[in-house]
Amino acid sequence: MKRLYLIVLMLVSFSNIALSADVDGKVSWSQRVVMSTGVSGVVDEVLVEVGDHVTKGDVLLRLQADRFKASLSSAKASQTDAKYKLKEAEREWSRAQELYERTVLADSDLQLAENSLMAARALFENAKANHINAQRDLIESTIKAPFDGIVLERHVQPGQAVINRMNAVPMLSIAATKTYNVVGTVTSSFATKLATGEAVTMTINGQSYNGILAAIGYESVKETDTYPVTIRFNAGDKVLRAGQAAKIHFP
């Protein structure tokens, strides 16, 4: 009986060893974006340099705003004028209906009043849309930080003209610095024993971090029998660099 117990214990131990592993990995950004304005224009100011830490919502870059502000003012005035004309057309339509019901207005005149009302409505809707677009253009002439992060690249200088009609011109590259990924590879047999959401620990520069298994790849790496795994973790106040070596400790 003791012998059978020892065999079972050894099998359980070997099973636990097989399920645990240390895997080499590298730090990568969890979020990295190349940013540009949504409109063309001339760069007025760039408020950050490469390596600067930014907070979500910080203004990073502005185009010269005079043209956008003038367009917004013109669009606002056009909308006000169109609104006034629409009200006039509505009053004329009401009067025409009243006269028509009293049989003192011809069908053709009633139709003309209705046509004028429809045209005034279309003019107002178009003016309103232009006003919204002008507001959007002014907003999109400024780049703001989409998340807490670090500036990786700066591609433009004040005074530089950027044309974004067909393809957006890269202006700034930003990476998130709160949450990172560590990417490593495991064999196909080991991958089948893993499940996303599992707790995983890592060591980076001697510092231990807790994370979760965020993704398990389904395509092998360069036609080998290894598959990528991605661990996501919060680095707290630590700022890491993409490409740093890491050791992934699977339980």
Structure summary, number of beta strands: 14
CATH structural fold name of the largest domain: Elongation Factor Tu (Ef-tu), domain 3
Query: Quick one: overall form?
Result: elongated
Examine the secondary-structure arrangement and name the CATH architecture of the largest domain: Beta Barrel
Which CATH C-level class of the largest domain is it?
Answer: Mainly Beta
Can you give the mean pLDDT? 91
Number of domain units: 3
- The CATH homologous superfamily name of the largest domain equals Efflux pump adaptor protein, beta barrel domain
Q: Give the SSE order as H and E letters.
A: HEEEEEHHEEEEEHEEEE
Ranges where pLDDT stays below 50 over 5 or more residues in a row are: 4-19
Main β-sheet, spatial strand arrangement = 1-10-13-12-11-14
Largest sheet descriptor: 6 strands, antiparallel, barrel
Strand content: 25-35%
The assigned structural class equals alpha+beta
Counting copies of identical and different chains, the oligomeric state is single chain
How many H/I helical runs? 4
Backbone CA Rg: 32 Å
